[in-house]
């Protein structure tokens, strides 16, 4: 980001005593960042194969499956971006889902060694740690001179309420370390004589970012575009921007070509491939940021533990702002102090940062404004831009995530200026320290809530399932696999990562076609069998089974080519307790008496019914 010291040159060399102090500061930041990463994820570290994130066990199961499937696809020469292992018979287009392909490939050896749940935890922890360290590197080496300033800014960004909220199982959104790298390489395009090499490097980075967090890459590109435009149009920067424009555009062109070539197949799948969809299966009004949420405190924080947290987010994984009034006040004070002491070039940077935060905050309000949980009739700018292609697939609330790095930068700039200024009156210094403490201490993160989840049956872990399913055959647990019943993908992930072979399942947790108005939806369109089992598991009431019901269920069995139906003794429900006894009675009414195999109830479907 344009500032002094610049991204192109970096700070001046330091003297040996200063270098020693800086290395000590670097080590302290690394240790603090590591401690916070482990602290936030500590509930899972107790036993990653048993524990699950309370607020989002379904997404955790999905990412574990993606890690197992990605590694299996690479080692077996399969397509890592499309699969028929789930959602039989149509398959799933993973290019329009959160496929984290790069993670799946890079961590495949670890997944085979320790299993998907433990690998998921390692990546989640490393994401938080790397986000702090890469932001610290960018700030300390390119934007501020004070290591303390860099540490304050980087640690705030990495453990801001939005990042901690998305640590509830989102391996894509917690990959915040990609953002400072993209910023660094984008502004490197200004360097004369290096546009080809810099363009290639940024193009490769864009391809990597797309393969880990496509939505996050889109938001980062939008934010950088807005910032660069505002910064370049400022009167103080027009001459510099005009001089750098030809080199910048050449490098950007190379970036587009390199990224386009590397992503040609994923982009084709995304926009024109099978099982694609337009828009999203989520309501943008529900998944928009409440205006009051910016002044509220998050649940997983010291303030939240003290009872000051709120439920203004649609769910605990989407607390994308939640900065609290003290931090908002401190941010405004920092902006004013920096503005008053800034030269015209620094004011241009501050102007661009302020405008960026305001634009994305307003866009995060979604199509209509909500205030303290009450929906108003006041239309918002997102109501217009939300109809555009690609934008219509984004959740507006997540646009608020752009505000956190802006606040982190302002905090870092302020601390840097205070450290560089001549000694002040002690009361003034104490006031600043107190202000930062009051604003930041309540936001210190607390560990994610975790619970024990139901174990994978011995029927799966022992490989017994292979005696009841033909090669590449279809097995289904009941209830059938969807986001709230993730067992099918958990079982499949275990089999793939332990080299037991493949079995297919109907349904699954994914985004695919079939939603209203041609939009996407979560999981497959329900059929009779899935609806009946959901009713039994959710309510404990056995549905009335008629001859017509039996015929519809047999049609479903043929559609899905199901060979074996399995009911575990303990079924994991992501949102509620599941009534296994009602499921057993329903299965018996539909399929006849079950077999007892290992620790599951099992129905074999006759060939005539499939």
From TrEMBL:
Keywords: Membrane, Transferase, Transmembrane, Transmembrane helix. The chain crosses the membrane at residues 27-45, 94-114, 120-139, 146-164, 170-188, 195-212, 218-236, 248-268, 321-338, 350-369, 389-410, 430-449. It comes from the Bacteria. The keyword Ribonucleoprotein does not apply. Pfam families: DUF6311. One of its GO terms (molecular function) is transferase activity. InterPro entries: DUF6311 (IPR046278). Residues 80-387 form the DUF6311 domain. This is Dolichyl-phosphate beta-glucosyltransferase. It comes from Micromonospora noduli.
């Amino acid at each position: 980001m344009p500032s002094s010291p610049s991204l192109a040159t970096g700070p001046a060399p330091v003297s040996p005593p200063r270098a020693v102090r800086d290395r000590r500061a670097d080590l302290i930041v690394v240790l603090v960042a590591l401690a916070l990463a482990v602290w936030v994820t500590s509930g899972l570290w107790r036993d990653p194969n048993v524990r699950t994130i309370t607020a989002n066990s379904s997404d955790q199961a999905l990412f574990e499956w993606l890690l197992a499937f990605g590694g299996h696809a690479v080692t077996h020469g399969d397509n890592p971006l499309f699969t028929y292992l789930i959602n039989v018979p149509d398959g799933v287009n993973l290019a329009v889902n959160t496929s984290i392909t790069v993670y799946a490939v890079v961590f495949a050896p670890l997944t085979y060694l320790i299993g998907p749940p433990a690998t998921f935890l390692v990546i989640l922890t490393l994401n938080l740690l790397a986000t702090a360290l890469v932001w610290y590197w960018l700030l300390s080496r390119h934007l501020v001179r004070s290591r303390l300033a860099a540490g304050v800014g980087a640690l705030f960004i990495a453990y801001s309420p939005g990042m901690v909220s998305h640590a509830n199982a989102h391996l894509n959104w917690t990959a915040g370390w990609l953002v400072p790298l993209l910023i660094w390489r984008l502004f490197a395009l200004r360097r004369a004589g290096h546009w080809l090499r810099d363009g290639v490097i940024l193009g490769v980075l864009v391809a990597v970012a797309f393969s880990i967090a496509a939505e996050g890459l889109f938001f980062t590109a939008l934010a950088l575009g807005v910032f660069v435009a505002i910064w370049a149009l400022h009167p103080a920067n027009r001459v510099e921007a005009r001089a750098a424009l030809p080199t910048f555009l050449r490098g950007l062109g190379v970036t587009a070509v390199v990224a386009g070539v590397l992503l040609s197949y994923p982009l084709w799948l995304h926009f024109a491939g099978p099982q694609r969809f337009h828009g999203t299966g989520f309501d943008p009004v529900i998944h928009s940021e409440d205006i009051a949420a910016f002044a509220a405190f998050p649940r997983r924080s010291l303030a939240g533990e003290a009872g000051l947290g709120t439920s203004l987010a649609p769910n605990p994984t989407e607390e994308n702002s939640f900065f609290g009034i003290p931090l908002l006040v401190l941010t405004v004070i920092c902006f004013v102090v920096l503005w008053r002491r800034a030269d015209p070039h620094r004011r241009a940077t501050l102007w661009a940062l302020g405008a960026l935060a305001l634009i994305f905050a307003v866009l995060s309000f979604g199509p209509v404004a909500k205030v303290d949980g009450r929906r108003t009739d006041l239309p918002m700018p997102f109501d217009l831009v939300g109809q555009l292609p690609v934008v219509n697939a984004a959740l507006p609330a997540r646009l608020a995530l752009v505000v956190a790095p802006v606040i982190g930068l302002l905090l870092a700039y302020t601390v840097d200026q205070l450290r560089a200024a001549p000694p002040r009156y002690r009361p003034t210094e104490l006031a600043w320290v107190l202000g930062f403490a009051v604003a930041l201490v309540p936001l210190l993160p607390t560990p994610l809530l975790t619970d024990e989840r139901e174990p994978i049956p011995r029927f799966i872990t022992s490989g017994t399932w292979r005696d009841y399913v033909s090669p590449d055959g279809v097995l289904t647990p009941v209830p059938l696999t969807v986001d709230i019943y993730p067992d099918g993908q958990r079982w499949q992930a275990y089999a793939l990562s332990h080299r037991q072979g493949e079995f297919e399942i109907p349904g699954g947790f994914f985004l695919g076609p079939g939603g209203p108005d041609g939009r996407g939806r979560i999981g497959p369109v329900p059929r009779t069998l899935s609806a009946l089992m959901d009713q039994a598991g959710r309510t404990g009431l056995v549905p009335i089974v008629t001859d017509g019901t039996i015929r519809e269920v047999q049609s479903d069995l043929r559609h899905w080519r199901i060979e074996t139906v399995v009911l575990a003794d303990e079924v994991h429900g992501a949102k509620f307790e599941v009534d296994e006894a009602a499921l057993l009675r329903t299965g018996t009414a539909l399929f006849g008496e079950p077999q007892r195999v290992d620790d599951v109830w099992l129905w074999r479907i006759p060939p005539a019914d499939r």
